[in-house]
Each structure stands twice: as C-alpha cells, then as structure tokens.
Amino acid sequence: MSENINMLVLGQKIREWRKAAGMTQKELAEGVTSESLISQLENNSYPTLPNEEILVGICSKLGKPVSELFAESGIDKRLWDNEVLLDLIKVLLHQKDLDQAYESIQELMGRDNVAEHQKYRLTLCLGEYHIRKQEWPQTIEILTGLADELQGKREAYGRLLADLYNLLGTAWYLSTKYLDAYKNYSLAFQYSNKFHEPDLLLARITYNLGNTCRQLRYHEEAKEYLEKARTYFVDLADHLNLARSLYLLGIVHRNMDDFENAGRYLKQSLALYESLEIFEWVETAKRVYAFYVLSYDHPQEAIEELKSQASLLKDSKDFNTLALTYARIADLHLESKETSEAGRFVGMAASLFEHVIEAPNEEYFAHVLATSAKYNLQLNKFDDCIELAFKSAEILGKMDLDRDMAESLEIVKSAYKAKGDTSKALETAEQINTVLFRTLRPQVMP
C-alpha cells in the first residue's frame, strides 16, 4: 500500500497484544482470516496493510480499537499517502471509531493532492460517517449531491455508484421512508450486478433490497433477493449475515402463509445466532418464531414464550420492543376471544408509550394502536376503535407501509359495518383500494 506504513512495528504490536490475550495465531485468525496471514503480519513478511474487514476482525478479537493499534505503533497518519488514509477511514467507520474517522476525513480533505476518484470516495466516507452518527438528512444531502455529479460518469464509476446508492438507501431506510429506500437499493443492485464476481458489497446490497421489500410486503421479490443474499453469504462464509438472511426469510415465508419454511428458516437462524453467541438475536428469533409460527398451531405455548421474553425485555429496559411484545400477546388473546386478558396486555403496552418510552419506535407504536383498536372492536366500542385505527393508519402511511396501513383501515371498515354505518364502511373500502393501488412496485431506472 505505502512505504510510509511501518509493517514491522504494526506486526510487533499485534504479536504483543495477542500474547497478552493468551491467544495463539490460530485462535486469533479463526473467523477473521488465515493463520498464515497472521504469521506474515507478525513477522513483517506481509507486504501491505490488510483490508478493513481483516483489521477490524483482528482488533475486535483483541479487544482494541484500530486507532489504538496505529497510535501505539508510533505511526503518523499525516505521512501516509491518500489511498492508505482512505483505507484507514473505512476501517475506523467499520469499527465505529467516529471521532478518529472524522479527524482523518478532515485531514484528507485538507490536502491539495487528492485525485478526483479519491474525492468521490472520501465523500462516500463522509456520508457513511453521518449515517453512523444517525444524521440521516446530512447523509441524504451529501450523497444526493454526489449522485448528481456522477450522472455523466456512470461507466467509469459503476462500483462507486453501487456503494453510493446502497448508503443512500440505508439513510432513507433508517429515516423510515421505505419507498425511497427501495428505489435507491434497486439502483445499487443494478450497478452491482455489473460486477464480474459476487463480493461482500453485492451481498449486502442484495440483502438490503430484500429486507426493504419485506417491509413493503413485496413478498415474492423479498424472497428472491434474500435467497440470493443467503447464497452469497454462504459462499463468503459470512455467518452473521447468513443468520440475518435466514431470519428475514422466515418472516417473509410466514407473511406468505408458508409456515413450514418459515419455521425452518427461523430455526436455522436461531441455531446460527447461538453458535455465534449473539444472545440478543437469539432471543429476537425466539420471539418471532413464537408469534409468527408457534402461534399457528399452539397459541397458548406461543403466549407463554412471549411472556418469558417480555420479562427479559423488561430487565434489559428495551421498552419499545417490550410494548410490541405485549401487543403481540394481546393479539393472540384476541384471536382466542380472551378479551379480558387481551385488555390487560393492551393496557400495559399503551402505558409504556404514555409514561416510560422517551423515543418511541413509530412502527411499533402504530402496531400497538392497531391492537388497541381490535380490542375495542371486540368490546363494541366502535368510536374508540375507529379513532385508534385511523391513528395507526396515519403513522404507517407516513412510513410508506401501505399494506400495514390498509390492514389498520380494514379495522376501521369493520367497526363502521358493526355499528351499521354502511356509507362510511364503503368510503373506507374505497380508501383501502386507493392505498393498495400504491403498493404496486415502482419501476426504477438508473
């Protein structure tokens, strides 16, 4: 990469940290890279700085930030050439060492010898920095400007555009504007399909597009993209993202009423999360399996599992997910006509949003409102049902979740029919048709 990187000093520091951690080269390499590469690094026979995935993996296993590796190695990044500094910025962003990443971005921006292609990549890094700072509008503004600048240079910068639209899609997704996310991920996928060989970027884009299709209830597309992503992650031996793909495939198959495959994929994801010791996602997979699969034939078992999960969520103070879990327990009680028990859990969910949660998850809140509306419908409190369901539909509509919005409006229609207001029921049915028409997949052209 550069003669300004003292690989001898860097390798010696890795060896020092590895021995302090009581690890062999084989143990350090496991799940990150080959044992031979670790040996080469430590013995100054590896010619370049390893890529970001390897550096982050090594430092993560040693419990050290990448920036500390370079600082303790006595390496001054002001002496590095632009390419090496760009690589370091990617590593720092990957490891969420944001202060160091921003400092390095400013260092490189201040140089007068930065080539055009390096400026474009640096702008991508700045966009990713704002994503990791949860500053979505800044990311969208920066990357939209770069996309406009590159419009006449598509052939020369195809890979960079794939990366750019993937980051833009992520900014829109995290802003809960799922249709905008879908459009940008679709563009990223079109550019990434021109790659000669599938790689991690293509795999991630495919996964992101599949996940967004899942949110928008484009079931067949979601299944297609997530299956492709699953295959890519198997080939890349990326077990974490493979587990994520299997998890989402389980949800998609459940949404398609394919309970057998839903259960199979969710169990596979659960087993992978357990092997990776990612216990937060182990519990998430258990909750989803209970609500989406187990409840179909064994609703009482599903309720008990969700109650157990609710206790864990309460202990961890994840109150948004706790409220959603209470609502799901209430949904299962409502399906069994156990209205009184449903009301107890509806009240607990609503109380969390009213008194405890400071930063509400809007999608979860909308689902709690919909469950509250169904509860009031069973009590024949039609006006309360209609008010709650309309609030749910309004929130979901702002997030482009039109199929979920239509389901909330279906509750409104049922309430109007039950109270004998045929005119309002027909009016709501027309509104539902309008909403569902919006769910037709938009065409996206580069």
Textual characterization of the structure:
Helices cover 76% and strands 0% of the residues. The protein has 446 residues and is mainly α. Among the domains are: 1-80, 434 Repressor (Amino-terminal Domain), CATH 1.10.260; 311-360; 369-446. The longest helix is centred in the middle third of the chain and has 19 residues, at 279-297. The mean pLDDT is 91. This is Helix-turn-helix transcriptional regulator. Keywords: TPR repeat. Pfam families: HTH_3 (PF01381), TPR_12 (PF13424). InterPro entries: Cro/C1-type_HTH, Lambda_DNA-bd_dom_sf, TPR-like_helical_dom_sf, TPR_rpt.
Which CATH first-tier class of one domain would you pick? Mainly Alpha
The residue fraction in helices comes out at over 70%
Termini separation comes to 34 Å
Rounded mean pLDDT score: 91
Pfam families: HTH_3 (PF01381), TPR_12 (PF13424)
Protein name: Helix-turn-helix transcriptional regulator
Keywords: TPR repeat
InterPro entries: Cro/C1-type_HTH (IPR001387), Lambda_DNA-bd_dom_sf (IPR010982), TPR-like_helical_dom_sf (IPR011990), TPR_rpt (IPR019734)
Descriptive keywords:
mainly alpha; 446 residues; 434 Repressor (Amino-terminal Domain)
Quick structural overview:
By secondary structure, the protein is an all-alpha fold. The protein has helices at residues 7-20, 25-29, 35-42, 52-62, 66-72, 82-94, 98-109, 116-132, 136-149, 158-174, 178-192, 200-215, 219-235, 239-255, 259-276, 279-297, 299-316, 319-335, 339-356, 362-378, 382-398, 402-418, 422-437.
